[in-house]
Amino acid sequence: MAEFVCRLGTPAGEIVTRTVEAVALTEVRTRLEREGFKVFAITPPKGDGLASFTKGGGVGRGTRVKANDFLLFNQQLAALLRAGIPILQAITMLRRRATSARLRGVLAEIEEAIRGGAALSQAFAAQGATFPRIYTASILAGERSGALDEVLSRYVNYMRRSVGLRRKIRGALAYPTFLLMASLGMVVFLTVYVVPRMSGLFAGFGGNLPLPTQIVMGISGWLTANIFWVAPLVIVGSVATIIWSRTPQGRLTIDRLMLKIPLVGKLLVQMTTAQAARSLATLLGIAAAQFRHCAANSRGPLVHREFGNCGLDARIGDGHGWHRRTLRQFARNAGRGRDVLRRRSRSEIRAVDDHA
User: Could you give the CA distance from residue 224 to residue 135 in angstroms, rounded to a whole number?
Assistant: First the structure.
């Protein structure tokens, strides 16, 4: 059983908030409507994404939809809205045509929430981590501006550029990473296998060996003699490092170290600045608190920390309180607004292309 927070309208005309225990969202809605309540919104429980609260039991709450399915869905939704199809009808059509069982289950819950009176942004936000924060914020901006189809088209363009940028950065870092791993493997092989077999040959030469050779042979001998506890220690240390790197503080520390690597650090700054500028251009026009929170979370812990230091006021564009280290990446281009952010994004993308 899970707890759902529900915003309801009573028969007396009052708006109240209740917490209801149930297995699935559909059960909550059915029970409340049977009791005579008007359901405005149902917020699912916050979790780690392992529990499943779905209409058919087949979609994990918090499990993201595949990028290709999500991109195709948004392209089709933007086209239907541009053609004048009502939102509910468009969601129903796309649910029936969806080839992904996961996407169909999610759209079924969204469709039900809209039928119950929830806004489109509320219906998507109720899915938790299934959809990126920047996506639900973009839908909210589209609802408030009355240009939802335009915002969705902008988000589709944002997704395409983000996917392309990630591919470029992976391609640019693939060869250096391969060389680094191959070099480490070669050093381990020489130290553990080759040098011990040549120690007898060196000893037969007589005389004193050079200091570097003595150091290498000493390290090799120590590793060979203690291999049975060094190897498990390395494995445990590697697993612990991986787990630590997935924590916010660990990711922040790794990001800072990566930025100090020659060439790689500059490339990462350009990539992150390009994606952050594209995120800001997509979210321009919503409340500053949401704007900062969504843009920061969509870009990683280091950018999140920098945006967290920004004392933004009521609306974006006031020009007050921007943190100096954040402005350093954006203030090189004069002016304000979406065009400036897009120009900044294109500039950094070209820089990534040059390095790639």
Answer: 54
What are the backbone angles phi and psi of residue 311, rounded to the nearest 5°? -90, 65
Q: Which residues of 137-176 are buried (b: 16+ CB within 10 A; e: fewer)?
A: bbbbbbbeeeebbebbbbbbebbebbeebeebbeebbeee
Q: Which two tokens stand for residue 72?
A: 């195709």
User: DSSP characters for 119-144?
Assistant: -HHHHHHTTGGGS-HHHHHHHHHHHH
C-alpha closest to that of 6 among 122, 121, 132: 122
pLDDT band at 253 (very low <50, low <70, confident <90, very high): confident
pLDDT band with cut points at 50, 70 and 90 for residue 93: very high
**Residue with token string 């900062």:** 292
- Give me the pLDDT at residue 53, please: 30
Residue 70 has pLDDT above 60, yes or no: yes
Phi-psi region of 325 (alpha: psi -120 to 50; beta: other; left: phi over 0): alpha
At the second CATH level, the architecture of 2-131 is Up-down Bundle (1.20)
Cα 123 to Cα 112, 113, 187, 316: the distances in Å are 9, 6, 55, 25
Contacts of 273 (CB under 8 A, 6+ apart): 329, 330, 344, 345, 348
Return the structure tokens found at 311. Answer: 């004392």
**Crossing angle for the helix pair 211-225 and 195-203, nearest 10 degrees?**
130
Q: Cα separation of 145 and 350, whole Å?
A: 31
Angstrom CA distances, 239 to 103, 226, 227, 232, 246, stand at 33, 20, 18, 11, 11
Rg (alpha carbons) of the chain, rounded to whole number: 27
Residue 322: pLDDT band with limits 50, 70, 90: very low
Query: Would you mind telling me the total number of residues written for the chain in this entry?
Result: 356
Question: How far apart are the C-alpha atoms of 276 and 103, rounded to whole Å?
Answer: 27
Q: CA separation (Å) from 197 to 203, 216, 223?
A: 11, 13, 13
Domain boundaries, the chain: 2-131, 264-355
Q: How many whole angstroms separate alpha carbon 14 and alpha carbon 4? A: 19
